[in-house]
Amino acid sequence: NTPQIAMVGSRNPSALGAENAFHFAQQLPAIGYSITSGLALGIDAASHRGALAAAGSTLAVAATGLDRIYPAQHVELVQEIITHGGAILSEFPIGTPPKKEHFPRRNRIISGLALGTLVVEAALRSGSLITARLSADQGREVFAIPGSIHNPLAKGCHYLIKEGAKLVESADDLIEELTGTLFSRPRLRVEKEEIAPITSDLIGDSALVFNKIGHDPSTIDHLIERTGLTAEMVSSILMELELRGYITSTPGGHYTRQALRGAQ
What is the set of domains in the chain, with CATH numbers? Predict the structure, then answer.
């Protein structure tokens, strides 16, 4: 009987999108909410794992029969969900394989089970926007996390916000909208160690370059300009940061912060 929050988004999120999903889902169980999502790659998986990291329960709604876990690499995730008191459910009979037309049907269950749906990161043409529309049609709240105007995966969230979805920057924003007041529930308290930068072991120029990358993709030319370091130094540091798992390179010569461990 725990109230549920649905969390949905891209199957191929940015590092920041996966990180946001993980952290929102990690904070909500502490104040009495379960996380509902669709077991897909990307935002769904990060949401399930965030709830599990907080020892919370999470519900996975499948678009297949319960004997056909999809994607197959999430078999262990399903086992962990069940072990921690969550569940996987489906309206499809045993033996049903994944089919394209099943996913929109699955989405209406995700939204219908929850008090509201949070779209973490989504493109304009996305199944996540279908879930958001279904949530609104069912009389539920719709929330969206804004992103960079340069990120195509933020455009779906920006569209929803323009259409009336609630803009949220923290789990507190979401809970305030759902309850009308935070006095009935303990306000979220994020301890310093939870939000401490993952660069605690970076010093000097390495920390400088990482911090200048920020949360949007950056090119080496931008980083040279922002740091004042030489091209050789920036290139060497970027290689070091990538090898150590702090950043990832993307096509076009851009660098982004890597998602936190567990948000993959």
Answer: 4-189 (3.40.50.450), 197-257 (1.10.10.10)
